[in-house]
Amino acid sequence: MAMAGSAVGLGNIWRFPYMVGEHGGAAFIIVYVICCLLVSLPIFFAEATIGKSTRRDTFGALESISPKSKWAGYTAILASFIILSFYSVVGGWSIDYLIRSFGGGFSGRSMAEAREVFAAMGASPVESVSCMLVFLGLTAMIVGAGVDKGIGRFSKISIPVLFVMVVVIAVVSLSLPGAGKGVEYLIRPDFSKLDAPAIAAALGQSFFSLSLGVGTILTYSSYMKEDENLISAGGWTAFFDTVFALIAGFAIMPAVFAAGIEPAAGPSLVFETLPVIFSRMGVVLPVVFFMAILIAALSSSISMLEVVVAWLVDQGGMRRSHAVLAVFGAAAVLGSACAVAPRVFGACDFVSSNVLMMFGALAFALLVGWKMPREEALRHVRYRFVYWLIRYAAPVMIVAIAVTNLL
Ligand code: TRP
Questions:
Q1: What is the pTM (predicted TM-score) of this model?
Q2: Rounded-to-10 torsion of CA 62, 306, 308, 7
Q3: I want to staple 312 with a disulfide (CB 3.0 to 4.6 A). Which of 226, 279, 316, 404 is the partner?
Q4: Can you give the residue ranges of every domain in the chain?
Q5: Which of 407, 402, 160, 166 is nearest to 285 (CA)?
Q6: 80 Cα–ligand 1 center, Å
Q7: Is ligand 1 within 6 A of the CB of residue 352?
């Protein structure tokens, strides 16, 4: 559940549905699933193998496999920290919008007014920074409560609740007049749109969506029981993450088309278009929607914080509570910068998803494929075919996407 919680996040809600529509509907979904199976899942297994086999934090785990790969531990932990900082800004917006929707803040508003509300929130440092701090504080409280009592317990309750919420929104959205166009946008296959950037986008999206390359899966796997099977953990996580992304698509796009609006990705979709559309259906639906976004974001942000905390506890000998406080303080600083300066936000997003995550994923695949003793790797990944994917296919594909994305 915790791994599913880490995987299911803003990536599923505000990026996936739009990417599907932009890049050829069902054709893109097929490519996405193939990328997941052939590249992202093997990397998931490699990352989980490192965690489960060494039972250490990201830095200690990599160092114990090959002392030379220490630097990859540092970049992964740094990436987790950076992602936590800008993700918390968006988490803060969802808190802000949740409060507004309780008061029926969007009912009767036009799209232009909603755009102004969003711009005003971004332009008010006090509002965006304080909401970011509340989000980061909630994240810290959950992680501070411990792996089982905090992260585990939160995930076991929140993920099923989240699932029900999104299904309810999808049912409402699909029942709107004109919803059919949204369904068509999501599934009508258009193979002509499948060019190299579309395939790179599918891979990049599946990396981000499965939380790969920065030590989250590694750290969570180091807490698995010896007899737990990481192949089934990974398979279920990827399956659930994909199903959730699809349901989110069916919750969002039909409503967008029913309202006669052009779909967009990212902040403008979630914070401008949807509040207005959902408010036309009463006060409850926007509340449910922003609550769902908040839960999805929290269950992901706790996984990023845990990477850094585990490192401080294992390598620095810090007490868990002190480690949580230290990272909270540091992320509050970078998060504030992200909240007030869109440039900093963009740079953090770009560096972490296009550079550091790729770097980490490559390091994990190479370490398991080429450095770890073959028997030890096979004991965890079980299938020769998977081992082969980790050794050859995954590294080649990562380099290929990194190059395509940076060009
Ligand atoms: N997977 C999450 C999402 O889709 C985000 C996330 C959580 C993440 N942990 C991560 C992304 C680690 C990259 C790395 O929103």
A1: 0.94
A2: 70
A3: 316
A4: 2-406
A5: 166
A6: 9
A7: no
